[in-house]
Amino acid sequence: MLFTRHTFKIRFLRVINNGVLGCRTVAQKNTIQILNAISVSVHFLTLLVSLAYLIYGFYWMILINCIIFSIYFINKKLVTKGYPLAAKLLGVQGIIAYLYLAGLFYSFPITLTHYYTIPLIACLFVFAGKERYYTVFFIIQLISLFFIQALYSEQLLTVSFNVLSTERRELFDVILLLTMAIFLFWLVFLIVLIVEIQEQKLKKLKTRLFLVKKSLKVQNHELQMFGLAATHSLKTPLFIINSFLSKMENNIANGNLHNNDYYLQLVKESNRLSEKYSNDLMSYLSVYNIANQFELIDLKSFVEASVDLQKISYKNSEIINNVGGVFFISNPALLEIILQNMVDNGLKYNVSPKPQVRIYAESGEKSLSVFFKDNGIGISSAYAGKIFDPFNRINQIETASGSGLGLTISKLAAFKMNASLELHHSSNGGSVFKLDLPYENKPF
Fold first, then answer.
1. Is residue 274 a part of any domain in this protein?
2. What is the pLDDT of residues 344-371, one digit of tens each?
3. Which residue, among 418, 295, 433, 303, has the nearest Cα to 366 in the 3D structure?
4. Residue 357: in which H helix or E strand, if any?
5. pLDDT tens column, 193-232
């Protein structure tokens, strides 16, 4: 039963959204939805009334109802082809012609004359602000026909087409009144339903805009902080290079070349560090340009392929892949950046005889947790709150040649793929980082 209701709702929404793909504005889309809702209600009730006419022998009305059915199919084609105004004009004028012909065949009964209120109400919803001239034209036409037929019906007919007896005419009036009441109720229901659907969409859009605005604010703050840190960090090697080049220049001018080899070595080291900063800076900024393309990933195979470069760079190390058969949806480009940086970080800041990084995963109720455990130098409490700040190197270890951007890049990549990266545990025996990945991952 629930499945049937859900299927009906989907099909109904498809009908009222027919032709909205070509709309450039929300107002145009809303107009077409209301137009389709009115069209559906008119033709559904016309079909329902045609069955009643067939049962009670009102065959002329069945023939006239074919006008409404013809208009329905023509309007559907016009809306789909991108001509909503033509569909509106044909639809309203067609209903007016239908009501006039129906009145003609049954001597303009006052009950049927009141049906002119239906297209009159429809005009107020169908035509947009720029189409108010059509609204005025049809309103004048409908009001004129209503009063002319209500007051001068006998003068309009030279030949009586009415073939109904008094009893059958009363039955005909009852059918018309019931149909009109049902139509008005159904039309109000459809319009309320459309408004409710639009409000739900608007709420979702506002929520998404709020999250995007919040995300942009956070990213803007991070970029500002990153720019300040990058400026400071890049100035340091440049200052060293300029200082020692000046000393070398003075030594050459004084004929003292004793320390120039040492100064030259420091200049090369500073230049190498400056180049490292520049490359990592480009890597950090490139994360922003990675497309939000998510796909199904086999984590065990993905980890194995991602850490091949580290196995070559750190030959006297061990990378243990303890990830089981886990499949989930994520961004492969961003996930690869995180894996490579976390493994590189664990092996780089490591003074053990055999550096080791073990990767394992634990499945939670809503997310998958991937852990990176190393046997490195650990992270002191003084650094624990700053490890993800840009250009912040973990402790002071002479063997490490990083720029301090590895964890910052990883944190940014995790944020962009709706994941979270944090320091789970650290001691003198090493550190454990935890990456939480939601199972149903979507671009932020």
1. no
2. 888 888 888 888 999 999 888 778 899 9
3. 418
4. strand 356-363
5. 767 777 887 888 888 888 778 777 766 766 666 665 556 5
Q: What pLDDT does residue 210 have? A: 83
**Residue 362 domain-assigned?**
yes
Q: Check if the beta carbon of residue 409 is closer than 8 Å to that of residue 403.
A: no
**Domain shared by 311 and 194, yes or no:** no
The contacts of residue 185 (CB under 8 Å, 6+ apart) are none
Alpha-carbon distance of 224 to 218, in angstroms, equals 10
pTM: 0.46
pLDDT of 106-116, one tens digit each? Answer: 777 777 777 78
Tokens of 74: 């023509």
Mean pLDDT of 81-101: 82
Q: What is the pLDDT of residue 230?
A: 58
What is the DSSP secondary structure assignment for residue 295, as one 8-state letter?
A: E
Angle of helix 166-254 versus helix 117-126 axis, rounded to 10: 0
Per the structure, the complete domain to which residue 50 belongs is given by 2-210
The domain spanning residue 363 has which CATH number? Answer: 3.30.565.10
What's the rounded Cα separation, in Å, for the pair 214 and 217? 5
- Rounded to whole angstroms, what are the CA distances from 443 to 208, 293, 329, 418, 440? 12, 8, 11, 7, 10
Give 298-307 pLDDT, tens digit per residue. Answer: 888 888 888 8
Asked if 247 contacts 239 with a C-beta cutoff of 8 angstroms, the reply is: no
3-state SS, residue 46: helix
Long-range contacts of 217-220 (CB under 8 A, 24+ apart): 218/415, 219/288
- The rounded distance, in Å, linking the Cα atoms of 206 and 123 is 31
